[in-house]
TrEMBL record:
Highest rank taxon of the organism: Bacteria
Pfam families for this protein: MatE
Molecular function as annotated in GO: antiporter activity; xenobiotic transmembrane transporter activity
Protein's recorded name: Multidrug-efflux transporter
GO biological process annotation, one example: monoatomic ion transport
Protein localization: Cell membrane
Keywords for this protein: Antiport, Cell membrane, Ion transport, Membrane, Transmembrane, Transmembrane helix, Transport
Tagged with keyword Cell membrane: yes
Transmembrane feature ranges: 12-33, 53-78, 90-109, 129-151, 163-181, 201-224, 325-348, 368-389, 401-421, 427-446
CDD domains assigned: MATE_NorM_like
Predominant location: membrane
Gene Ontology, cellular component aspect: plasma membrane
Length: 452
């Protein structure tokens, strides 16, 4: 029987590496945005215009991965390691096929996407180039995310986290040479010529692509060949294809995928609401989302620990652990993100200032970040409670909560407020919606856990 302190320590042990991984991943986008932001408002707006579309593709890949990693967590919890490895094999095959389909769709819609989103003619070309190059990451994102997810549910949080940090470092290095042209820099009073390709927006996307490639392949190698639990060489029976694993994955992933499709579709609609407000508003909107990500990534780190612990508890048929881990992770997430909300409110000017030297962008970005800061605790409740449900294999109703809240509350309110209050009105709508969504998830989780 685990004590409360032992459960809390276990949550922390699983959360910290995951939080570091989440934060470093966001830092990669933060660095991209900051480097491109130094080039001016138009390149920043070009990336900001198509970012929701790139998130959509990545989210769908993540949903497919989750359908298999949840099954692996359940089998590991039941100490059935051969079946866990079998599901893992199915996950790679199915996931790679799906990611290649997403890549094909991205290449087909890429040339027209900036026009559909309402971007001005001055940013349409850069937006298209960024989207097409960044879409090339898709299969490598699947490999990286699938490998990391499998290792995490097997209890190895450290290695995926360290690789995420490495990816961030590599992204900085690649971007430094790809975004900027050859230039002279001063280092300790010595003038040095620093080579560069001067690719601008395209360089930012290419740098991220190379960073993903350099991390995805070694991580997959370790998961497949070296992991004590998951290495395929431990299997003594010949691999056989079982459609039941695919069907089980689809039952978990399909509601999540539909949710991500409609949630990120809502983000695209939100971008269409923001686009007529001008390049400054587009850039400020994009930068504020990137800056806010640093504050809510701890919540996503705790949510990954929640998925792992709840999934293994369900697999072991330990309902007491299921309930206690659920509530402990939700309340820990709310406390951590309440603190991060305070940090975001106080340091909003500095967070935006690092991303753009343009005063108008800095002022607008600061004001909307401070609006959003008040919603962070309830945003945490929504993030972690949803992951608790995913760990238990319950994705349909939580997905409906997310979708209903996003489409019926956020977009409706944002559309009504944008014309009068501009971007500040859009972000006020976001803060209201996130707070209400968090309350709905707490209520849903309370009802659900009473029945278990």
């Amino acid at each position: 029987m685990m004590s409360r302190n032992e459960k809390f320590n276990l949550i922390i042990q699983l959360s910290i590496p995951s939080i570091l991984a989440q934060v470093t991943t966001v830092l990669m986008f933060y660095i991209d945005a900051g480097m491109v932001g130094s080039l001016g408002a138009e390149p920043s707006a070009a990336i900001g215009l198509v970012e929701p579309a790139t998130w959509l593709i990545f989210s769908l890949v993540s949903a497919v991965t989750m359908g298999f990693s949840v099954q692996v967590a359940h089998f590991i919890g039941a100490n059935d390691f051969p079946k866990a490895r079998a599901v893992m094999r199915h996950g790679y095959v199915f996931g790679l096929c799906f990611s290649l389909l997403m890549l094909l769709i991205a290449f087909l819609i890429g040339p027209r996407l900036p026009i559909w989103l309402g971007g001005g003619t001055d940013i349409q070309h850069d937006a298209m180039v960024y989207f097409l190059i960044f879409s090339g990451i898709t299969p490598f994102h699947l490999i990286e995310y699938m490998s990391g997810a499998m290792l995490k549910v097997a209890g190895d949080m450290r290695r995926p986290s360290m690789m995420a940090i490495l990816m961030c470092v590599l992204d900085v290095i690649f971007n430094y040479f790809l975004i900027f042209p050859t230039r002279t820099i001063s280092l300790f009073g010595i003038e040095l010529t620093m080579p560069g390709f001067g690719a601008g927006v395209a360089g930012a996307a290419l740098g991220s692509l190379l960073a993903f490639v350099c991390v995805a392949l070694p991580l997959a190698y370790y998961a497949i060949f070296r992991s004590p639990i998951l290495a395929w060489k431990q299997d003594t029976e010949r691999f056989s294809w079982r459609w039941q694993y695919i069907w089980n994955a689809l039952k978990i992933s399909a509601p999540m995928g539909l949710q991500y499709l409609l949630m990120n579709g809502a983000q695209l609609v939100s971008t269409m609401i923001v686009a007529p407000l001008g390049n400054v508003a587009i850039a400020a909107h994009s930068f504020a989302i990137t800056a806010e990500s640093l504050c809510y990534m701890p919540g996503y780190g705790i949510s990954e620990a929640a998925t792992t612990l709840v999934g293994q508890s369900v697999g072991a048929d330990r309902r007491d652990l299921h309930r206690s881990f659920a509530w402990m992770t939700v309340f820990l997430g709310m406390i951590v993100m309440a603190f991060m909300g305070v940090v975001m409110y106080i340091f909003a000017p500095e967070m935006i200032g690092l991303l753009s030297p343009v005063t108008a962008i800095q002022d607008l970005g600061t004001s909307i970040l401070r609006i959003e800061a008040f919603a962070e605790p309830f945003f945490a409740a929504a993030i972690v409670a949803y992951s608790v449900c995913v760990g238990a294999g319950d994705t349909l109703k939580p997905s409906m909560i997310n979708l209903g809240s996003m489409w019926l509350i956020r977009l409706t309110l944002a559309y009504c407020l944008a014309s009068q209050y501009g971007l500040r009105g859009v972000w006020f709508a976001m803060a209201v919606e996130l707070s209400l969504r968090g309350m709905m998830f707490i209520f849903y989780l309370f009802k659900r856990l009473r029945k278990t």
